[in-house]
Amino acid sequence: MKSLTLLRHAKSGWDDPVARDFDRPLNGKGKRAAAMMGRHLRSLGLSFDHVVASPAVRVMETLDEIERGYGKALNTAWDRRLYLASAETLLDVVRELPDITGDVLLVGHNPGLEDLVLMLVPEAADGLRDAVERKYPTASVARMAFDVSGWPSVDAGAAVLERFVRPRDLDPTLGPDQD
């Protein structure tokens, strides 16, 4: 059994004048949402034996806040391929994960993360998949399980979506247009 948790970076600051999208930082709401999501992951008792993330500034800052809420460092492996990656590229990264890892956190961007969930979870799944299809907001987490012995066996339609949590599910003030 393998578990894959996908975390979209928290809300970034579009008002911050940066030369490159890659360098865009989080805004205050994003920092609050990421820290809360870290506390939520801790409350669920989740423990990741491998973390892979995009090296974009907003992802690094999201993980800083996740760690603050989670209460411990996550020992992240930075992978440039995750920056604005398509679902297909993300799936390639997943299939390359070390087989000794059983519980992986992948942190990146949309639309790739949302598309990956929709690719991996069968359409006949319950309402969680429908919620992902409607919108995968910033700082949201999708957790999937696979009945496989190795990551190379992960394929389209093979996942069970165990949970999908958005920041506004934990705190309504973190919903859209509430800052």
From TrEMBL:
InterPro entries documented for this protein: His_Pase_superF_clade-1, His_PPase_superfam
Matching Pfam families: His_Phos_1
PANTHER family with a match to the protein in the record: OS09G0287300 PROTEIN
The protein's name: Histidine phosphatase family protein
Organism expressing this protein natively: Sphingomonas populi
